[in-house]
Inverse folding.
């Protein structure tokens, strides 16, 4: 298994495009609609936000995914189509418009939106631009890049990756694009992510693989503790790799899962690293926990702590905030067994042993915490389970971006 | 019942003081130790953080409160005495030092600390200064003021209040000082608060009243979602008002509870309003909910949302973030019945009806949201229960304060 080029166009039989049609009204005319199409029908699955308030496209997708088959995904940025007038009607019209130019049924198209909540989406701009969107489709590195850019909101870099592996003697590819940045907290997808693969796999098994993957990737990141109304992760598998269709767990499923998980962990980390205003990627690894679930809860609590995030922003080795966040995570443990260290490319430093502060070299700690990628290493002394979660620091820019997002 | 002057010295038979002894080493020599003493033994109770990681003084207080009797509280700012070497030993020594100058048993003294986690507290400075602290005791407005200042960390204003009421024909006084600012989230006390009263009330009933009060005051505020290791709220009742001792629920208990709750709601609001770096007090009132618990959960989720807080900082009427936070609160409800309005001294504006955005006057909304005290009014359409919680916005200053707190 290895990382390759091509994003959502890495897998055979997929085309993508991304253009500006007018949903975003900023003067800089950024791309605002993306289209991903498979030559042939795909086994399809999705996981969506657990927020009680769900954006309109999610209701449409849940209906369109009932038969486990789809061929295309249309997605816009600039408007979330959540809590907005005509929400479901316009989400359906996005699917219908795409279906018409592709030449497929409307319920074989999935739809996603991201952007501001509560405003009517400019459906005329999307319907008016869909032919141009279709005409721009290509199965190239550039086409995936365009689609990745078209779903960005406050993201500063595109999120795109692809993985190649061998299953059943055949070359299988899995690729994805994603957007993240704000309103991100582990509770399902926590963002938009669209994945394509040429692996032959049944609807049931692609769904199982997606659920298993979301749990250990997107559900282990947090930017700001806010679970969005629009979080969606969808996968299309068209089977063109020619492997024997995966219909049950076994070595082939395991190989596919490994590729899918590698892809999604990379995209999830990239999302955390590019959290709104972030200057640091924070990785929190909890070892020696009594269970993976316990390690995950504790690690998530640490990366979600506003105070911990502010300390990392300030390159301040304030490990007490990590211990505090562990303590209110809901997990029980003995604080007097906890060790904490900070690490980065600049080295590692122990700051807490058996729940008590160590006299450590503050200058060395500062040097370590000045790096972009910071790791908080926690040893619980309770068992042998471990888990890693990812977050980012909170900065002046986060406040600036979110203090006046709508205007 | 009415608000009066005097803070913790408003009740008969209480003296207080606050001085600098050297726990804080900043150049500005702020006060760092407070003492509150009753002439006579008191019925006493406390509620403490639910964080698994508890500061050393809390373990000592739990032991000293077992018999429901106490006479004094000694508290320092500048060091949390949490996860620090010799924690419990030094907390005991603080009690013993105070007991020696007062002339009471060490287990009749309660102790609190607030400040940085994980560093050894300067016990020598406290022991060396305790005679001066005792000599400064007085039952004056100025003495309570000094104690209120001595427990401040990043607070910008002192928190102090007192209430007078009539119980059993006698004038009864309840007063308190508190500190808040950071690491504040509803899960018990969420701060330090010391309350004195001359009401005659049994240990059991003062404890019941404190629990009932914490639930609807301190547990309904949030500054940053971080539940501290040190949260403590303690009350001393010396009975010098001369009312018949309250030993059960009834009109006298109800009158005392009313006074205690009025005091604590005021102190809680003051804490939210003075949250670290805050420019706005945010009050979120949820009406028409199916239960008070449901209204409380939803209201807390809204005031705790980092994105909602950033929007208020930017005076941006981004009500979608309120709906989003309601949706991930864990409560179930029908989003299509939800109405949202923003209000302040400058007026009120409806922004969402039946879960959909309204076309509202953005200029008017901006004017309303520019005031210091902002209210988010939510109508659920599910029942007739309501609840109000308090929070604050998140600002550049919050990041600045917490990016480099230790140095």
């Amino acid at each position: 298994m290895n990382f390759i080029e091509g994003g959502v166009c890495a897998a055979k039989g997929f085309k993508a495009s991304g253009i500006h049609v007018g949903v975003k009204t900023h003067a800089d005319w950024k791309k605002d609609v993306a289209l991903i199409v498979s030559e042939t029908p795909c086994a399809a699955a999705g996981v969506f936000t657990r927020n009680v308030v769900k954006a309109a496209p999610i209701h449409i997708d849940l209906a369109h995914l009932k038969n486990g088959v789809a061929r295309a995904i249309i997605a816009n940025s600039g408007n979330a189509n959540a809590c907005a007038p005509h929400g479901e009607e316009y989400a359906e019209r996005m699917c219908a418009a795409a279906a018409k130019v592709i030449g497929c049924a409307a319920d074989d198209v999935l739809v996603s939106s991201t952007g501001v909540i509560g405003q009517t989406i400019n459906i005329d701009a999307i319907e008016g631009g869909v032919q141009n969107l279709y005409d721009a489709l290509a199965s190239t590195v550039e086409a995936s890049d365009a689609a990745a850019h078209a779903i960005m909101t406050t993201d500063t870099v595109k999120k795109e990756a692809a993985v190649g592996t061998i299953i059943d003697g055949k070359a299988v590819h899995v690729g994805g694009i994603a957007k993240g940045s704000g309103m991100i907290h582990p509770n399902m997808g926590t963002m938009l992510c669209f994945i394509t693969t040429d692996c032959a796999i049944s609807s049931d098994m692609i769904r199982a693989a997606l659920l298993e993957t979301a749990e250990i990737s997107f559900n282990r990141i947090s930017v700001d503790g806010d679970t969005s109304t629009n979080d969606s992760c969808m996968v299309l598998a068209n089977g063109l790799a020619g492997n024997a269709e995966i219909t049950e767990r076994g070595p082939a499923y395991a190989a596919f899962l490994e590729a899918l998980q590698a892809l999604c962990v990379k995209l999830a980390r990239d999302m955390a690293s590019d959290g709104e205003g972030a200057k640091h990627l924070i990785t929190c690894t909890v070892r020696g926990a009594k269970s993976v679930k316990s390690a995950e809860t504790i690690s998530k609590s640490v990366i979600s702590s506003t105070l911990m995030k502010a300390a990392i922003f300030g390159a301040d080795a304030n490990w007490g905030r990590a211990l505090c966040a562990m303590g209110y995570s809901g997990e029980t443990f003995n604080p007097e067994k906890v060790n904490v260290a900070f690490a980065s490319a600049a080295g590692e430093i122990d700051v807490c042993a058996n729940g008590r502060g160590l006299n450590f070299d503050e200058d060395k700690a500062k040097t370590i915490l000045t790096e972009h990628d910071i790791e908080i290493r926690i040893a619980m002394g309770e068992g042998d389970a471990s888990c890693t979660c990812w977050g980012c620091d909170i900065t002046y820019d986060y406040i600036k971006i979110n203090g006046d997002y709508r205007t």
Observations:
- Chain A touches chain B through 67 residues (CB under 8 Å).
- The first strand of chain A starts at residue 2 and ends at 3.
